Structure formats: C-alpha cells, structure tokens
Amino acid sequence: MITVESLRYAYPNGNEVLHGVNLNIGDGEFVAIMGENGAGKTTLVKTFNGLLKPIDGKVLIDDVETRKTSVAALARSVGLVFQNPDHQLFCETVRDEVAYSLRNFGYPPDVIERRVRGILETLDLMPYVDSSPFMLSGGERKRVALASVLVWNPKHIVLDEPTIGQDYQQKDRLRNVIVQLNTQQKTVVVVTHDVEFIAECRPRVILLSGGRIIADGKAEEILTDKALTERASLIRPQISLLFSSVANLPRDVIDVFSAKAVINSAVRRRT
Amino acid sequence: MPIIDIKDLSFSYAGTARPSLSNVNLEVKKGEFVIVTGPSGCGKTTLCRCLNGLVPNFYAGELTGEVLVCGLDARRQPTSVLSHHVGFVFQNPENQLFSLTVERDVAFGPENLGLSRDETRRRVEWALEVTGIGGLRDRAPYELSGGQQQRVALASVLAMEPEIMVLDEPTSFLDPRSSQEILGVVAKLNKDLGITVVLVEHRLDLATRHCSRIVVLDKGTVVLDGPPKDVYGRQAHLIGIGVPKVTLLFHLLKQDGVEIEKIPVTVEEAEAELREILKH
C-alpha cells in the first residue's frame, strides 16, 4: 500500500513542485498518473522509493515512512523505471544489466539465469541477450530498463512514461505484463501522457496539475471530461472525441473494442 | 530531382551482426511531409542519421548503397556541410540545448556557419518569431517546460535555414497539447516555407493530419509507402504500427460486415462516416 499524506516537495533551489498531495494506492491496483509537462508527476513518484524526501507531510510504503528508511531498503519493495533508460543502464550486455540487481542481492547463479531468461522472454528481448544495451534502439533500451527492475520482483512497480518509443505490439505486451502483475497483487503505477494507451487499459486515473491532484477516478470518467483534460493539457482519446460529437452515443466510451460493440448494435437495430 | 534520394542503402553498426538497414530505397520530393514509422527497432533512427551524415561519420559501421541529400553525397560530406541543408531535431530537447539563454542557443547555429552579425540577428529574430517563442528569448532553456524547450530546439535548427527538417520522435516527452502545438508549427513551416519534413513518429493519432505520405519500415526495409489512407491497412496493424484509433475502429467494423464507404484517418473524417452509418 502506498500512502501519501499532505505531501509537499520543493527542489533545493526553492521551487515548490508539489503543494499538498493526498493519495492512497492499494495493493494490486493499476493507477495512471497523468498531467501536463511540469505538473509534478515524476517528482511525485520519486518520493515513492525515497529518492526524494518530503519537505512536509509524509509518504508511507506498507506503513513505513520513507523519511525513516533508506532508498536501498525501499528499493526492494518499490521498483522505479526511469523515463530515460540511459539514466539507469550501464552494463556491457543486456544479460549483465538485467542480472545486476539479483547478483547484488546475492541470489545463486542458476536462479539468476532462470529469472533473467524469463523476464527477457516476456519482454521480447531474448534476441539481444548478448548485445550491449547501448547498441539497441530507444524503445528496446526502454524495455531493458523495465526488465532490469521487474526481475527482482518488487511489490510496487512504478513506470515513468513506459510507452515512449514502443510500437503497438510492444504496448500490448506491456499491457499484458501489467495485468499479470496486478493478478499477483502487485501495485503498478504508470506516469504517462499516452492517452490512447490509458484508454485501452482503463485503469484508475489520477490527474495532477500544477502540483495538485485535480481529479481521481475511472479512466472513462476522467478522459472524457473536456474541461478536466484541457486543464491538464491532455487531449481526449480519439474514440471519446468521436462519440461526443455524434448524437445519441454513450459518452463514456474510450476504447476501440467497446466502441465497436456499441456501433455494431446500433447498426443492427436499424436493419 | 528528388531532394532525398536513397538507393539500396544498407547499414550495420560496428560490432553488430544484424543490419539496421537493408536495401532501403526512398525518394522524397521537395516540400513533402513524410512520416517514417515502424515497429520498435526497425531502423527509423538509423535512417534519419544517414540523412545528415551522422551515419557513417559519427556512428561507425558498414554502409553500402547511395544517399543523396540536396544533391550531395551524404556518405562523404562531413556533417558540418550537410547541416547547412538538413536540420535535425532530437527526441529529447535537453540533448541539443546548452546555452544560458534561448537567444544564444538559437544564434549558435548561424554563428558557427560564419554568418555576419546582421544576418545572424535577422535569422534569430525570424526563427524565434515563426516558432512563437520571442517572449522567451532571455530565459534559460533548462528552466522551460518540455514543449517550450522543443520549440527552442526547432528554432535553433530553423535559424540555419535548412531545406530539410528531420525530426526524430520530437513529441515523445511532451504532453498531448504541447505535442499538437509542436506538430502544428512543423506543419506550418512545411506549408508556408516549403521546407521538406521527415518526421519519425510512433504516435500517429496527432501527426497523421499533417502528412502527405507515410513510409513504414520493418526490419530495416521499407514495407509500405503511400498516403495514410492506403498505408493504414491490415498489414500495418499486424506489424505493430499504431494506426490512429478511429482508423482501427472502422477497419474492425468493416470486418464485421458494416458497410463503410471510406476508412477515415482523422477524427473529423470518422465523424462524417459514423453519421452516415447511423443514418441508414
């Protein structure tokens, strides 16, 4: 469980980015944090693993306050995948990169080999196991960064802009991985601008704007709200734009497959 | 003569077994707005790097075939010469901004071309104006928002007055509204000034309306090439292209037997088509 109480955070230059955030994320939940550039999304998730400590208020991970424990201890339960993979990749091969944490935690070699292989297969990275991460494309490096965190099996997983550079199939794969993690009662928090990805996944959405939470609810409520999305510099999903402009269609449809079902039944009624 | 003329281009980065590009053929005419897309790792970025000579001059490897850009052989010309003709905007604006003020960043290119003070000043003013950031000239790039930074990156490239702009996923780090604005600026430069645009993009929902042509790469070769309505078919979806959601929706409806006159590629087209379907 991630609990955030009256959290304020300011960078050392005095720039206050979060102005009193309250939030509860339960085990096994899938939550998207969305909002404009500079809203404080990345800052917020960096408080979850203690990289940033509140100047006021508190953040608790499974009832332990982040100010009272170390990042190293928190990292075992909170896995954070950075927006820019180059901030976390440094090994010579993909295998070493993904095995790095497990070696540090002192796992036996056969367990490491099995786990590394498993996660690389899940993320479609086996062909690159002996490549240098730096020879891979941007999207592939992003997946290596994700693999290197998922491999140690943290209980809470935070992904900062995971869909950047990913094609449609990779996004589908990512969605399946998230669903799978949820069924294992793991928390998944995604920071993203990718409205269309969220429209397909339909998680709980938290809208952050100017360092404050301005909305918290179902994706189909928030992403169809014109005023709210505009305030957070988002654009409603294409399906929502389409359905809100044509008369007599439900307003809470945001994904392609629900849209298809609605239109099909409308067409059938007419014939 | 095409402004970009690529013949049988293959390239493998040094130390890799798998070629990043194999037998690419591509002609782009002056004034076109081309989107290059394709699955993760298909060679999009490598193709861009060939256009301004970063491949093979900066990124070493084995290159065969021909790359002509503005009539110049991009394999042999140094990047410093090609930079007069080809402007490059990266995914992350932080990778190309470094000065203490926006104005200085935009002036850097013209100054290094050895232009006079007056000409540099004229170009800086012009570039700031067309990208709409005149008001930010004295600000430090690092304290701007992502969208503003990307505009500065655009302006700093424009000040070199390139004939071609190559943009490698310029909106990835931006929120949707800033993305829409940046793509709008690029489209305006294309339309008003006739600058040829090569835009690498995964998120096609916002970009499609501006382009005249889409080139799809898969495993290092061109597999589809044409206007969006022809390219956004079943094959594109199968290799992982994120075709706009409204386009996907109408493909699926058609599969289900709903009569569809024209598969839409923008929300506006989809609205018209949907009204038509529901009228019957």
Task: Explain the layout of strands and helices.
The complex is a heterodimer of chains A (271) and B (280).
Chain A (H helix, E strand, L loop, with lengths): L1 E9 L5 E10 L4 E5 L6 H6 L9 E6 L2 E2 L5 H7 E4 L12 H11 L4 H14 L15 H13 L5 E5 L7 H16 L3 E5 L3 H7 L2 E6 L2 E7 H4 L3 H6 L6 H8 L10 H15 L1
Parallel strand pairs in A: 3-8, 3-9, 6-7, 7-8
Antiparallel strand pairs in A: 1-2, 1-4, 4-5, 9-10
Helix pairs in contact in A: 3-4, 3-5
Chain B lengths: L3 E10 L7 E8 L4 E5 L6 H8 L2 H4 L3 E9 L2 E2 L5 H4 L3 E4 L12 H11 L4 H14 L15 H13 L5 E5 L7 H18 L2 E5 L3 H4 L5 E6 L2 E6 L1 H4 L2 H5 L6 H11 L11 H13 L1
Parallel strand pairs in B: 3-8, 3-9, 6-7, 7-8
Antiparallel strand pairs in B: 1-2, 1-4, 4-5, 9-10
Q: What is the compact description of this entry?
A:
The complex is a heterodimer of chains A (about 270) and B (about 280). Chain A is α/β, with parallel strands linked by helices. In chain A, about 40% of the residues lie in helices and about 20% in strands.
Q: Could you please say which CATH topology of the largest domain in chain B applies here?
A: Rossmann fold
User: How many helices of chain A?
Assistant: 11
What is the CATH C-level name of the largest domain in chain A?
Answer: Alpha Beta
Task: Report the average pLDDT across residues of chain A.
Answer: 94
Oligomer: heterodimer
Strand proportion of chain A, as a percent range, falls in 15-25%
**Do you know the CATH architecture of the largest domain in chain A?**
3-Layer(aba) Sandwich
Distance between the termini of chain B: 49 Å
Q: Quote the beta fraction of chain B.
A: 15-25%
Query: Can you count the beta strands of chain B?
Result: 10
Largest interface: A-B, 52 and 50 residues
Strand order of the largest sheet of chain A: 6-7-8-3-9-10
